[in-house]
Specification:
The chain is an alpha/beta fold and about 450 residues long. The strands form 3 sheets. Strands 1, 2, 3, 4, 5, 14, 15 and 16 form an 8-stranded mixed sheet that branches. It has a 4-stranded parallel sheet with strand order 6-7-8-9. A 4-stranded parallel sheet has the order 10-11-12-13. It is built from 17 helices and 16 strands. It binds N-(iminomethyl)-L-glutamic acid and fe (iii) ion. The site of N-(iminomethyl)-L-glutamic acid (NIG) has 14 residues, from helix 4.
């Protein structure tokens, strides 16, 4: 990164405190209201004709446009002409750093092979591991940047990026460094997760316990380099057992790192209960989640991370127990699970749609899942809604209502995106100009 001379650094610091007033928006604030909330507590935290004032990276005021504080002299004013504004999406489960593609494997599945057959034959995740190990860091970074730009087109302002296609200390570190570099470059905010316990690399074939020993030994080094915000594992009969995952979690806990888990995706391994026992931030996938798993998540306050992109792409038929999760009060999040093997999508609006159509979420649950609950699944409490004091991360859509965002599918891109109070240049992320006029003073 370039070093700024002292004088410019001061100017940048002052600009960072600039105030922007965004006017005449249909606001889905998600503040205060909950699905099923009593009358008078409007769904979506809805404000029909609203305004948002940002100061620096944060929201200084939100309310009806008619109540904008008198005498306000913002540095810039932006007229939104009734466009929809939502909190920026927090895509809290992605595998964004990798090389290669797996379209051929998808084709094999269409002809009858299963995800498990392909994994057992040594392909699947291991195919991507070989391609990722063979790619240099600039290539991995370039690919990750392109994917990040697509996510931002779909309104994402924070992304979680897992490693898990390196599976050696050297290659896991490279992938996590690329994720960190992407976050340093901005504007997309990045949280990193070490998923070294994703699959058994070929050099450890038949020696899963020895591989888990190695993963536990790598964690302190990766953490010392500042590369890890959380630790994840894949608990499944084609990956690692609950006992092996527990060892990884103990190593994470010893370093003070939060954990999360790919659990109950293809079978019930008791992974959710294991995750809950370690106070996990989230348990992810959950198609085969049991009643006792639901109770464990509820009492631990662990987020249920639903990934309808993988369910759809793998043509799964067993649904996650959404009604029971809802009844138990478990917060449900939604994410893309972007990866080349089970969910090659980069569109959060499409994920909202799939969450509603396939899993039976309401549009409001889907929006909360993609914002507030996604943030919670990352342990972040400073974003995911439009409220005073939270980060000024939001997306503007040429739509009237958030249910429109979840209803029609396959084409939604935001028209403007603000991350940390700064509007992201459309040329950076390829957003279309659809004629929203702006009046900057
Ligand atoms: O979240 N389930 C395991 N991991 C990924 C898939 C990884 C892959 O197939 O490359 C997931 O679906
Ligand atoms: Fe995943």
């Amino acid at each position: 990164m370039n070093q700024l001379p002292a004088a410019s650094a001061t100017l940048v610091a002052q600009a960072a405190q600039a105030t922007h007033l965004w006017r005449h928006a249909r606001l889905a604030t998600l503040a205060g209201a909950r699905a099923g909330a009593p009358a008078g507590d409007p769904a979506f935290g809805w404000i029909e004709d609203g305004a948002v004032l940002t100061r620096g990276a944060h929201i200084a005021w939100v309310g009806p446009d008619s109540e904008v504080p008198a005498g306000l002299q913002p540095d810039a004013e932006h007229e939104l002409h009734g466009a929809l504004v939502t909190p920026g999406f927090v895509d809290a489960h992605t595998h964004l750093v990798y090389a290669g593609d797996r379209a051929a494997e998808w084709e094999q599945r269409l002809l009858g092979a299963s995800y498990e057959d392909i994994a057992r034959a040594g392909a699947g995740i291991r195919h991507t591991v070989a391609a990722t190990r063979a790619a240099d860091e600039p290539t991995l970074l370039r690919l990750a940047r392109q994917r990040a730009a697509s996510l931002m087109e779909g309104g994402v302002t924070t992304v979680e990026i897992k490693s898990g296609y390196g599976l050696s200390l050297h290659d896991e570190a490279r992938c996590l460094r690329v994720a960190r570099q992407l976050g340093r470059e901005g504007p997309l905010r990045v949280q990193t997760t070490c998923l070294a316990a994703h699959a058994l690399p070929p050099e450890y074939a038949g020696r899963a316990d020895a591989y888990i020993d190695a993963v536990c030994a790598w964690l302190p080094a990766l953490h010392a380099e500042g590369l890890v915000d959380a630790v994840d594992a894949f608990c499944e009969h084609i990956a690692f057992s609950p006992a092996q995952v527990a060892r990884v979690f103990e190593a994470a806990q010893a370093l003070g790192l939060p954990v999360k888990l790919h659990a109950e995706q293809l079978s019930d391994q008791g992974g959710a209960a294991l995750a809950a026992r370690f106070g996990a931030l989230s348990a992810d996938h959950l198609e085969h989640l049991s009643d006792s798993g639901i109770a464990a998540l509820a009492s631990a306050g662990t987020v249920a991370m639903l990934l309808p992109g993988a369910f759809h792409f793998l043509r799964e038929t067993r649904l996650p127990p959404v009604a029971a999760l809802r009844a138990a009060g478990v917060p449900m999040a939604l994410a893309t699970d972007h990866n080349p093997g089970s969910s090659p999508t980069l569109s959060m609006p499409l994920i909202l749609h799939l969450g509603c159509v396939l899993f039976g979420l309401s549009p409001e649950e889907a929006l909360r899942g993609a914002t507030l609950h996604g943030a919670r699944a990352l342990g972040l409490h400073d974003r995911g809604a439009l409220a005073r004091g939270l980060r000024a991360d939001f997306a503007v859509w040429a739509l009237e209502h958030p249910r429109d965002l979840a209803c029609s599918f396959g084409h939604h891109r935001c028209t403007r995106l603000v991350i940390g109070g700064q509007e992201i240049g459309t040329q950076d992320i390829g957003m279309q100009d659809i004629g929203m006029q702006d009046t900057a003073r």
